Structure formats: structure tokens, C-alpha cells
Automatic annotation (TrEMBL):
Residues 42-302 form the Protein kinase domain. It is found in: Cytoplasm. The keyword Chloroplast does not apply. Residues 21-30 have a biased composition (Acidic residues). InterPro entries: Kinase-like_dom_sf, Prot_kinase_dom, Ser-Thr/Tyr_kinase_cat_dom, WNK_Ser-Thr_kinase. Keywords: Cytoplasm, Phosphoprotein, Receptor. This is Nuclear receptor binding protein. It comes from Trichuris trichiura. Pfam families: PK_Tyr_Ser-Thr (PF07714). Residues 1-12 have a biased composition (Basic and acidic residues).
């Protein structure tokens, strides 16, 4: 069993001098992960509300140079820890595979059974921004109410993340959805704290014991019924009500415990009927009567038909063959007289709609926001040929064994160097989460330029650029990528299909099947010649 390498033992509270809290001392490395990538620092992270996390420290990702959170779960009973160790591993193997723009990413985890108290350490994204609860407290002090537009902008990504979790088989239930576990990034993106490890709940302290959080818990949980997705829907309904009323501001003074009667009273103060209907559906006592997260995305209070502009931005971000189009679209913004549409009235007089008549929108910023997940297309399923998750949901799961997870990092390389060699290259074990392929003309008339972009399950990126002959096939190129350790053999077909799509878009016969078909057609044509 791997044990973290101890770099420096933390001092006891009585031994720590005031100078230890200085900026210099907070950068001291206290501990490293077994792989050496994650470096624990002295500074504690206090703005966490994850059940079971006994303590959290700021840490550094030594490969990407970004700050992360080092979370520790302590076990007081060593025998129970050893008995349940395999189950805990299974839970965290699932957590690190979760990949959604609105979920705080769990990067890695490991066990430490050699310490005085056994520990589970896991690394998550660091959220420097505040929570929705903190925002509501600050805003409630002013007379300004939260607009229905802002309320929608918060509810949709939360439901989108819940729909993602509930789509697995069996469904993944968050179990800890509150306004304190929802973060707002500076760009407006909502991030949900990582899922509660259900298998560990017998051995860790529960935030549900806090009476201030009792109103988020569905009635059936107290009745001992199995944990199921309707529990998350109930908690979402309470969060939606809290957001709509700025933390129950209408009740005046801070209330120590929010009861069901208080929730009903606050709900009656809502001015928007559709908003009230959505919340009432979520907080029904009967779990079977509550709608699913997917159904709520289509509720009249939230559903909006996406604009053509937004659809275009998503196409630009998703499809590498359109990567140059955003420049052309952006350049058209200055042509105020360009006619976009023309309406001919009954008297025959046309009324043109010009570019200048349309509200100006910074397309560059909008495209960047779409890349960051701020404007999701929740009514469409993602195109799996362009964006493949390691775990995608029922019927489309692509499980990855824990042995496939590694902290190996390879830098950017060039496919121009993909030549045969007698040397053995270490195989790539990380799975590709997202990729793109782009074919462009090359300086050589007999070759084309291929650009490949990969994002792996540990959120690292790899770019490969090189020439290939027109006679080469997508499967032949992937064979080289796998042999040289650039992609995993498990991703062979997916990578080949993506390259083939890009080659076909450029007008090349890209697959072996197409090559064989061309040859057979030529042979058949030759046989017909007398």
C-alpha cells in the first residue's frame, strides 16, 4: 500500500509561532503524494462543506502549476478501515471518473494506512470564489431582489449537473446539495462540491446532523428509505427557493432552524407563478411525485429555445473544422449595413433587418464563455464523436479500472517524429475524455497536415502536429499513436473515428474500408472493359 512521502511534519498548535502564519511559511511543503505531483502546504482551506472531510489544505499541482485542495478523511477504527478499504477504493474510482463543467473535479486519491489514524486523501479543484450562500447573505442586506434571469442562470447548471449524476446506472446521488456546496466562479460558472462518498457514511461525521441544514433533507431520508435521486430534487427545490428569496430574507431575522412550515410560508411570497410551481413540485412529500432533473430542465420556468447565435458558438467550440470560422464571424460585426433578413409587407414594400439593428454582443467573449460551460445546451445530447466522457451514463458506460489511472505526464509532441524505432515506448494508460482533429494543407504537395488535441481524464492536455501522406488511413495513424505511447489502446476506435471524420471533411478517403471499396470498384470497372 502506498504511503505519502513525508517532507516535513506539521507542528503542533502549541509549537506554532505567530510567524508561522506568514506568507512564507504557508508555502512550506508539509507532505507529498506518492507520485510526487501533489504537494500539501500549511495553509488550511476553511470554505469547504463536504461531509466527512476532517481537514483540507491548500496544495500545489507541481505539473500544471495550479492550486488544488488536499482533502483528508480520518478513520478512528483501523479494523473497520481495513475491512472497508476495497469498498472505499471503488467509491473513489467512480468519483475521479466524473467529468462535468458544473462539478468540482476530483483529480486523484490514495490511502495512508501507516499513519496513527488511517487516512483517505483526495485532491479536488480549488475554488477561490465564494458560495451562493455567501452571495445571498451579502445581497440580502440591500433592497435589490434577485432577478428571475439570474435565478434561471443558477438553476439550469445545477440541474444539468444533477441530470448527469442521475443518468448513471445505478444513479449517483449527491446527498449534500445546499447553497453552501454551490460555488460561483468569477466568470459566473456554477460549480457543485464533489459527491458524498456514500460507502463511507458509517464512519464519518455527517453535516446532516447540523440543524441549520435539516431543511435541505427530504422527509423520506428520516424514514430510513434508500437514498435515491428524489432526495437531490428535494434539496434542489429548497436551494431554488433560498436563491429566489435571497436566503429567506422575507422572514427578517436569522432563523436557527428552517421547518417545513417556514418553507411553505416563504413559498407563498413568490411573485412568479411558474417559479412557485417549479419549487412546489420539487419539495413534495411524496418522492415519486417529484420530477426528474431532466424533466425540470424543460419546465416552463427554465426552458428557453437557444438562439442561433448560441448554437453557432457551440458549433465553433465543438467542431475543430470550424475553428477558423469565429474569426470570420467576428470580422462581420463591424459591417453595420449588412442585411441579415428582409420582410416584405402586404403592400410590397420591403423592410430590411441590418446588422446594426441587432443588439451588439461580444462574440469573442461569448465563445470563450461557451468553452467554459457558462451557456450549456441542456436540451441536446453531446456529440460523442467529438466529446467522449470516460463514464457517460446508462448504456454508454466505458469503465476504467483503477490500475489505468496514473500520474504520468507527457508533454506536447509532434507527429512528424512518429517514425519506427526499435525502442519500446511506455504505453499510455490514461483515457481520452475529449479530443479534436483538424486536417489542413501542407507545404508538401503529397502530404497533409494533421493536428490532434487530446484532453485526458486527469485534465492534462496534449497536442500532436505532423504531416501524413494522402495514402495513409486513420487506422494506420492511430496504430502509430498507440505504439508510440501517445494514446491508450482502449481509445483506438474512438480516435480513429475522429481522425476519419476530419479526413472525410477535407475530402480524403480516410478509412481502410473506403480504401478497399475504391480498390474493388476499380477492379470491377476493369473487369467490365472488353
Amino acid at each position: 500500500m502506498e504511503v505519502p512521502k513525508s517532507v516535513e511534519k506539521p507542528k503542533a498548535a502549541s509549537e506554532t509561532s505567530p510567524a508561522a502564519d506568514s506568507d512564507e511559511d504557508t508555502d512550506v511543503i508539509l507532505e507529498e503524494s506518492p507520485c510526487g505531483r501533489w504537494q500539501k502546504r500549511r495553509e488550511k482551506v476553511r470554505q469547504r462543506d463536504v461531509p466527512g472531510v476532517d481537514i483540507a489544505y491548500l496544495a500545489m499541482d507541481s505539473e500544471l502549476g495550479v492550486e488544488v485542495v488536499w482533502n483528508e478523511v480520518h478513520f478512528s477504527d483501523r479494523k473497520k478501515f481495513l475491512a472497508e478499504e476495497e469498498g472505499v477504493r471503488t467509491v473513489f474510482d467512480k468519483l475521479i471518473k466524473l467529468d462535468h463543467p458544473n462539478l468540482i473535479k476530483v483529480h486523484s486519491y490514495w490511502m495512508d494506512s501507516e499513519s496513527e489514524k488511517p487516512r483517505v486523501i483526495f485532491i479536488t479543484e480549488y475554488m477561490s470564489s465564494g458560495t451562493i450562500s455567501q452571495f445571498l447573505k451579502r445581497t440580502s442586506q440591500s433592497s435589490k431582489a434577485l432577478s428571475i434571469k439570474s435565478w434561471k442562470k443558477w438553476c439550469i447548471p445545477i440541474l444539468w449537473a444533477l441530470d448527469y449524476l442521475h443518468s448513471f446506472d445505478p444513479p449517483i446521488v449527491h446527498c449534500n446539495l445546499t447553497c453552501n456546496t454551490l460555488f460561483i466562479q468569477q466568470n459566473g460558472l456554477i460549480k457543485m462540491v464533489c459527491v458524498t462518498p456514500d460507502a463511507m457514511q458509517l464512519y464519518i461525521r455527517q453535516s446532516r446532523e447540523n440543524p441549520r441544514n435539516l431543511h435541505y433533507i427530504a422527509p423520506e431520508y428520516h424514514q430510513g428509505k434508500p437514498v435515491a435521486p428524489p432526495i437531490d430534487i428535494y434539496a434542489f427545490g429548497v436551494c431554488a427557493l433560498e436563491m429566489a428569496t435571497l436566503g429567506f430574507r422575507s422572514l427578517g431575522a436569522d432563523i436557527p432552524v428552517v421547518t417545513k412550515d417556514v418553507l411553505d410560508k416563504v413559498t407563498e411570497t413568490l411573485e412568479h407563478p411558474l417559479q412557485m410551481d417549479l419549487i412546489c413540485r420539487c419539495v413534495q412529500s411524496d418522492p415519486a411525485a417529484r420530477p426528474t432533473a431532466h424533466a425540470l430542465l424543460f419546465h416552463r420556468a427554465l426552458f428557453e429555445v437557444p438562439s442561433l447565435r448560441l448554437l453557432c458558438c457551440h458549433t465553433l467550440v465543438r467542431d475543430s473544422s470550424c475553428a477558423d470560422s469565429d474569426v470570420r464571424i467576428s470580422s462581420s460585426k463591424g459591417d453595420k449595413e449588412r442585411i441579415l433578413a428582409e420582410v416584405v409587407h402586404s403592400n410590397g414594400v420591403p423592410s430590411p433587418c441590418r446588422q446594426g439593428d441587432v443588439a451588439a454582443v461580444d462574440l469573442d467573449k461569448m465563445i470563450e464563455d461557451v468553452r467554459n460551460g457558462i451557456y450549456p445546451l441542456t436540451i441536446f445530447r453531446r456529440r460523442l464523436s467529438r466529446q467522449i466522457s470516460v463514464v457517460r451514463g446508462p448504456g454508454t458506460a466505458s469503465p476504467v479500472d483503477a490500475t489505468e489511472l496514473t500520474d504520468q505526464t507527457n508533454g506536447g509532441s509532434s507527429t512528424g517524429d512518429l517514425e519506427s524505432s526499435e525502442n519500446q515506448y511506455p504505453p499510455e494508460t490514461r483515457r481520452v475524455v475529449e479530443m479534436s482533429a483538424d486536417v489542413k494543407p501542407s507545404d508538401s504537395k503529397s502530404a497533409k497536415m494533421l493536428t490532434l488535441m487530446f484532453r485526458f481524464q486527469d485534465n492534462l492536455h496534449r497536442e500532436l502536429v505532423g504531416e501524413f501522406a494522402e495514402s495513409e488511413t486513420a487506422h494506420g495513424l492511430v496504430e502509430e499513436l498507440v505504439r508510440l505511447g501517445f494514446v491508450s489502446d482502449n481509445d483506438r476506435e474512438m480516435v480513429a473515428d475522429t481522425i476519419a471524420d476530419s479526413m472525410a471533411h477535407y475530402g480524403l478517403a480516410d478509412t481502410v474500408a473506403e480504401k478497399e471499396k475504391l480498390k474493388s470498384d476499380e477492379l470491377e470497372a476493369d473487369s467490365l472493359v472488353p
